[in-house]
């Protein structure tokens, strides 16, 4: 493994619940399904928007006046919108399609994502997802991975892990119960997938948040 480049890094974390609760902001929520790394290989539009926003937030944070939180929130939304537009352009170029076709993919895969979010606790087959999108299994698998960056199995597992990490914060729910309530059929598969996605075990995650309180 190559050593990381020297320099400053900004790590931004937030609760994306507010994006899911507001219909006007729901288009931005897919940005938070995984860790996003913006570096020298990212498109210039995304890099410049993120850097500008982070520096503005840094300056605004230390002013600590009555409008600080509002201004930071506005800056964040502007940054999310700019990054989303950059990602959309990159996605269109990667797929080699027109804006109209990209909109079609967005609508069809949007329906697929909503189905996954509502049915993560059940077995979700490739046949079912392809049927919702209106594509053949082969075409769906290929385009969905290009569009989302994940296979349908990886996407379903990420949705389940997003639910699981919220349940893990409840001290009255055991890890086994969390696994079952998140759509996993065994504690073994839950532990394996959780570590793949979050880079720690469910028990480590639970312990970390308990100690941080």
Please explain how this structure is put together:
This protein is mostly helical. The protein has 2 domains: 11-96, no CATH class; 99-213, Orthogonal Bundle (Arc Repressor Mutant, subunit A), CATH 1.10.10.60. Helices cover 65% and strands 0% of the residues. It contains 10 helices and no strands. α4 crosses α5 (126-133). The longest helix has 28 residues, at 68-95. It is globular.
Helical content band: 55-70%
Structural class: mainly alpha
Rg, rounded, reads 19 Å
Q: State the end-to-end CA separation.
A: 35 Å
* Count, helices: 10
What is this structure, in a nutshell?
Helix content is 65%, strand content 0%.
Can you give keywords for this protein?
single chain; mainly alpha; Arc Repressor Mutant, subunit A; 2 domains; 10 helices
Write the layout of secondary structure elements.
Layout (H helix, E strand, L loop, with lengths): L16 H5 L22 H18 L6 H28 L3 H21 L6 H8 L3 H12 L3 H16 L7 H7 L5 H12 L3 H11 L1
Helix pairs in contact: 2-3, 4-5, 5-6
């Amino acid at each position: 493994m190559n050593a990381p480049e020297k320099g400053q890094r900004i790590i931004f974390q937030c609760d994306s619940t507010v994006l899911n609760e507001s219909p006007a902001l729901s288009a931005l929520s897919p940005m938070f399904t995984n860790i996003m790394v913006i570096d020298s290989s990212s498109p210039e539009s995304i890099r410049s928007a993120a850097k500008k926003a982070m520096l503005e937030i840094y300056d605004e944070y230390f002013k600590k006046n009555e409008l600080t939180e509002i201004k930071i929130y506005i800056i964040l939304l502007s940054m999310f919108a700019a990054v989303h537009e950059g990602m959309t352009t990159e996605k269109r170029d990667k797929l080699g399609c027109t804006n109209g076709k990209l909109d079609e993919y967005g609508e069809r895969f949007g329906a697929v994502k909503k189905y996954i979010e509502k049915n993560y606790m059940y077995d979700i087959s490739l046949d079912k997802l392809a049927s919702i999108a209106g594509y053949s299994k082969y075409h769906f698998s290929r385009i969905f991975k290009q569009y989302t960056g994940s296979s349908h199995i990886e996407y379903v597992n990420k949705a389940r892990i997003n639910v699981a990490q919220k349940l893990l914060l409840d001290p009255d729910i055991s890890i086994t119960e969390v696994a079952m309530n998140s759509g996993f059929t065994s504690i073994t598969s839950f532990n394996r997938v959780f570590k793949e996605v979050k880079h720690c075990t469910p028990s480590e995650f639970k312990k970390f948040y308990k100690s941080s309180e």
